[in-house]
Every structure is written in structure tokens, then in C-alpha cells.
Amino acid sequence: MTEFDAGMNPIDEVDEQAIADAEATAQEGCETVGVAIPLGRPGGHPGGHPGGHPGDRQRHGGARSQGFAPGGGPAAKAYEERTGIKAPRIIAWEITRSCNLSCIHCRAAAEFGHYPGELSLDEIKGVIDDIATISNPIIILTGGEPLMRPDIWEIIDYARAAGCAPVVGTNATLITDEIAAQLAEHKIPRISVSIDFATAEEHDSFRRQPGAFAASIEGIRRAKAAGVGVQINTTVTKLNADSLPAIHDLAEDLGVDAFHIFMLVPTGRGSEIEDLELPPEGYEKALTWAYERQKTSPLHFKPTDSPHYYRIIRQLAKAEGKQVTREEYGMDAMTRGCLGGITFCFISHIGDVQPCGYFDMQLGSVKEQKFSEIWTHSPVFNDLRDYSKLKGKCGACEYKGVCGGCRARALAATGDYMEEEPYCAYVPPAWTPEMAAEHAQVFEEKAVAWDQVLEERGTLLAGQ
Ligand code: SF4
Ligand code: SF4
Asked: Which of 20, 191, 349, 464 is the most core-located residue (most Cβ within 10 A)?
């Protein structure tokens, strides 16, 4: 049995009151404490130094409770009072799609080279000005590879001057001593770097780039030496699920600050590797391992794009006779699984606004409309904010307030973003076998119809 297997725990019965409390807290609290960072691919978690060693820590985990407070500020407060809508706390912004690598699982399917229609520096500044009217969010500058954009330092400085908190998601292969010094000089508190295996051979094969592993590790070391915090992101697939303990240990050996595991969402180039996606039971296993491992890990831990983690921690805590309180569980008690469209969103390289980088639907373009208007008025955003619209077993689930299922996976599977999360093993008590049988047919019909739509779209695109 591997350490990974050892992490499995049985599911306990539901503590209705604890969930109700958590749900209320999650909806209230994610702007005041840490939140999940559902980045597109290599993301960037906004800092916070985990510090310390697990030692005789009393509470569950510890490092994670010292996460970086997400953005918001007075602008967000004023916006919320005026509109009754939560302001964005974290925005992942793909400032370029150009990338020096072409990883198998890349959301952006990015390649080296210029992508037409990318936002200019002036356009980016205009959008930052508008964002700052409704919030002072953390802005994750991502890509592609954001360090390929020559004006990145000006973007960082401009965002900070506007009251936002920029961080950088990078593959780190371009981080020379000079770039590391610039990151520090421009007050980047943390970068995030994707490492998907603990060995160079496996990582380079996954990244389709010999030498990528060594270059990323070197970039991490340089950033740390310059005083910049580092978060390692790992996209979990069937290929590397059993390597999670080894990758965690590598992260610890490197002295990084955080370890975030991302569950593959097969869109972009990732759609080509749908077969590598863990089955629902695999998610349970990986997320249970995360729960157990972070009890003693010195790293700030955050499963991302795996909303059911927030159901799992409550089940496992209950089995241990605990409640998921802020005092005991830190930010895990205060946030919600999927925040896409709720306090988080994504802006693409050409200015399209989406709930997250994996949610393959454009809700508006900042080239044509103000970001603040899209955030406020998009019917899709407003649907995502209304948990009563969730369908299937997610709609019947007592954990929907703290989980909500991955809306991008529901969209990819059926074309209906409010459908049930297809990769969750949990069956809510209110979801009877009869309801399940009836809904399975509805789900299947949507999936078949959606496949046809996608096929037609593909044919149309091929004909252009
Ligand atoms: S829709 Fe899925 S991938 Fe997007 S933010 Fe929510 S959980 Fe993450
Ligand atoms: S059924 Fe849906 S809401 Fe409930 S735990 Fe699973 S994914 Fe989350």
C-alpha cells in the first residue's frame, strides 16, 4: 500500500448543522480569508508564508491557515453595498498565450509565437482602471508564459499602483538571476510553478520538452534565492496520482511555500487527454490523501478545481469527531469549492471574460464592454451565483453551498453548466435511486446532443 492508498477513509454520515454553518461562513467569509485559486493552468497563489515546521502543531494542518488574504478592499465593499453582488477577489489574467513550452494538459493549448488580438498595454491599463472601480483584487498574471511579455513589469507596477495585488503564474524556465531579481524588485510576493512529476524524465515527457524539469527547478531556486515566494502546482492525472507524495516531498526539499494540486479539467489541449482524467473514485482518493497529508505538511496546501474537497473535509472531520471551524481548519473552513463567477474569474489573452480558464464560454469581451459591466450583468455569472439553480445530484446535495461541483466539467460534459458534476462519487441522501435513474437519462441525452454540437463546431472550424 502506498502512502496515497493509506490516505483513504470511509465516508461518514452527514452533519447537517455543521454544513449549514459552513455554508453560511463560506458565502460570507471567502473575501476575508483565503480562497481557492482556480487558476487556469499554471496559476499563482497569492502568497502567504507558511513558515514553521509541523512539529507539535495542534490543529489540522497549519500552514494553510496562514494563507494570503485575497483582494477586495474598500472598492469591493462599496460595490457590494451598491449592487448586492460579491466583487471579484481574484482574477486570473492570461496576459499572453505565447509560451516556450507546449504541455500536454495545457488549458490554453499555448505554443511559442505571437497570438493575434492580444490586449495591448494600453488596453490592459484601461481594464485595470475599470477593475479598480469595483475591487482591489489579486490579479494572477498567467499565460501562456507571462514572462514572455516584455511589458510585464509595467503591467505589474500599474496594477499595484491601482490598488490591486499582482502575482505571477509561470513555468519558471525563463527565470534567470536577473528575472528573479526583477520579480523581487517589482514586489511579486509569490510565483506559482507547475511541476507534474518528481522526476525529470516523467515531467519532461509530459511537458514535451527535454530539460524543462531542470529549468523549472533552477528557476524555483533562483526565485527563492531572490526572496520571492514559490508555490508548486501539480495537475493530477492517472499518470501521476501515485506520485503525489513524492512531488510533495520534492516541494518540501526545495523549500517552497505552498503545494497546490489541481484536478485535470479536460478542455484546451487537456481535452486530448480526457482518458487520463481520474475516475470519481480517484478524485476521492487523491483528495483524501491531501486531507491527511496536510495535517503534518509544512506547506500551504490547496486542492484546486476539485470543489468536492470541501465536502470531503467535512466528512473526514466528522469521522474524527471534529467540526470544520476557522480556528481548526483555517481557510479551508472559510472558502467554497468552485468560486468561478462568484469571487473569481478569468480574462483571456484577447480580453474574453470567463468564470475560469477551463469554463469554455465567453461571457463578454473587455474590448467591447467594461469588465465591471460583464461581472455585474452576465446572466451566466448570475446563474453561477445562484446555487438553487444547480441540477441533478448537485442540486439535491446538502454540500452544494460549500462545494457546488465543477461547473466547467458539467459544461464540457453536457453543454449545461448547471448540470451535476460528472466526477463526484458522492450520492446525497436526498438523491434517491429513482431520481438518479431518471436523471441519468436526461444527462445522457444532453451529453449526446452536446457531442453533436461540438462535432459540428469542429467541422465548421476545419472548413474555415
Ligand atoms: S468551474 Fe471547475 S475549473 Fe472552473 S473554477 Fe470552478 S471548480 Fe475550478
Ligand atoms: S454532488 Fe455535487 S455538490 Fe454534492 S459533493 Fe458532489 S459535486 Fe459537490
From this structure: 191
- pLDDT band at 365, cuts 50/70/90? very high
CA of 464 to the centre of ligand 1 (A): 31
Per DSSP, 299 falls in state S
Q: Which atom of ligand 1 is nearest to the CA of 337?
A: 7
Using DSSP's 3-state secondary structure scheme, residue 28 falls into helix
Cell of 374: 460583464
**pTM to 2 decimal places:** 0.84
411 Cβ below 6 A of ligand 1: no
Of the candidates 335, 269, 355, 270, the residue with the CA atom closest to the CA atom of residue 92: 355
30 and 334 in contact (C-beta within 8 Å)?
Answer: yes
> Is 424 touching ligand 2 by the criterion CB < 6 Å?
yes
Q: For residue range 323-340, what is the model confidence (pLDDT) as tens digits?
A: 999 888 888 888 899 999
The C-alpha atoms of residue 267 and residue 249 are separated, in whole angstroms, by 29
* Sign of the Cα pseudo-torsion (304, 411, 10, 337, in order): positive
Tens digit of each residue's pLDDT (9 = 90 or more) over 431-451: 999 999 999 999 999 999 999
Integer Cα distance of 401 and 272 in angstroms: 32
